[in-house]
Amino acid sequence: MATGFGGLSCKMGTEADETKNRKFEDKETLLADVSKAYTGCLYSDILKDNVSVSTSRFMLACRVPYFATLLYGGFGDNSTGNPVTLDCCDSQIFKQILNFVWEGEISFSELEIQSLLDLLETARFLCIDRLVEGIIDHLEFLLKRKLIEFNDCLVAFDFVILNKFTKASGALLSFIDQNLRTISFLPKFADLSEASIQMLLHFEERLSSEIDLFTAFVNWIKNKETVSEEVKTEMLGCFNLGQFDRKDLIDKVRKTRFFDDKEVCDVLEAHIEKLQDEVKSKEKQNKEQGEKLQEQSRRIEETKAGIVLSTSLQPTTAATFDYCCSLDQTHFVNKIEFTLEDLQYLNSYCVQVWNGVNWIKIIDCRELIHTGKQILHFERMKIHLLGVKVTGSKHVRDGSPCFYTPASISSFSASLI
């Protein structure tokens, strides 16, 4: 239950515990009155740029740790007679601090990059950690969405490096590295401090190429007469000559005279040796590939031609075979055809081939059921010699066995399909 009292609200609990939980809230009016005191310039406790700035010691101490210590610490001056003098920022930046103190918000989008950086440094000086984090988060947002100009990025990078804002410097460094090829040719890049360039040269998570980083260094080092030879040598030590390709070594790196000619020549010699090895390896691959293509072409041609390797099997007196065929050379074969001429008999037979090393039995037709044309398929293999042995014959009509000359075989062919 809630009741109104002069525009203010009073919230009640339930019927059972309304005596215990009765309370009065005036938060909205409190915030409005605080804002009114700020915008109405009711107080003038701070002197900035010889101008009296409207604020309250009490509010400053509540919202800003620095002022809590300065005004109400053990050695603080909490007298109200004299205004407090502040020298850590100009009046415009301090106006933003007061917006934070009294209204709890600051519009970053209205600030130029230098004003934003000054606000960052002032917030840290005043120990307002949450405002520092908010400004850094805003910078990271601008970088992620690519809403920051390259020149502004360089200004911010130098600022955070010199003032040791580690988190912000990491985000800006990564952004500059990703766009280094373009950024390094801006006039503003040459204005970066030595500390900023050192940070860029030692960036372990670098994505930019060796030649892009070297070009950036060359653009920066021009007319830097104040850089000592010791520092320059240390910077050059960040580069690995082996990471440059041959063209960049000759056209760019060597012409700067930053490295001894012998060092450059040694690296070029290593590049040449590597290139020779690559050429030899490529030649070997090409040769092997050529041999494979020749073999494939031969197989294709054999397939197209049907590979009729022999027209007949020759009778032999050897005990192992009745008929034998010697091919003109070793061929890949996976099909043979021949005809058992005497149709009055059913036959059984076996087929063996010589692959250049061993005799291999590929077909064993033991049942007495075969006559006429025989077409046999088997797994592709190399064949040079082929033999057929008729192992048995019987008469078609009465099944009587034949003990005489084995069945004649004709019209033999072997092929690869």
Entry summary:
The chain has 417 residues and is an alpha+beta fold. It has helices at residues 27-39, 57-63, 65-72, 91-103, 113-125, 129-144, 150-162, 166-178, 180-183, 194-201, 210-221, 229-236, 246-256, 261-305, and strands at residues 2-5, 8-11, 23-25, 46-48, 51-53, 84-85, 314-315, 323-340, 345-354, 359-370, 372-395, 409-415.
Tell me what the structure shows.
Helix content is 44%, strand content 22%. It is an alpha+beta fold. Strands 7, 8, 9, 10, 11 and 12 form a 6-stranded antiparallel β-sheet that branches. Strands 1-2-3 form a 3-stranded antiparallel β-sheet. Strand 9 and strand 10 form a beta hairpin.
Q: Any descriptors?
A:
alpha+beta; three-stranded antiparallel sheet; 14 helices; 44% helix
Set down the secondary structure blueprint.
Layout: E1 2-5, E2 8-11, E3 23-25, H1 27-39, E4 46-48, E5 51-53, H2 57-63, H3 65-72, E6 84-85, H4 91-103, H5 113-125, H6 129-144, H7 150-162, H8 166-178, H9 180-183, H10 194-201, H11 210-221, H12 229-236, H13 246-256, H14 261-305, E7 314-315, E8 323-340, E9 345-354, E10 359-370, E11 372-395, E12 409-415
Parallel strand pairs: 4-6
Antiparallel strand pairs: 1-2, 2-3, 4-5, 7-8, 8-11, 8-12, 9-10, 9-11
Helix pairs in contact: 2-3, 4-5, 5-6, 6-8, 7-8, 11-13, 13-14
Approximate helicity band: 40-55%
The total beta strand count reads: 12
The oligomerization state is single chain
Low-confidence spans: pLDDT under 50, at least 5 residues?
1-12
Tertiary shape = elongated
SS-based class: alpha+beta
Name the beta content range. 15-25%
Count of helical regions: 14
The N- and C-terminal alpha carbons lie at a distance of 95 Å
Order of helices and strands: EEEHEEHHEHHHHHHHHHHHEEEEEE
Question: Mean of the pLDDT scores?
Answer: 81
Largest sheet: 6 strands, antiparallel
Q: C-alpha Rg, in Å?
A: 48 Å
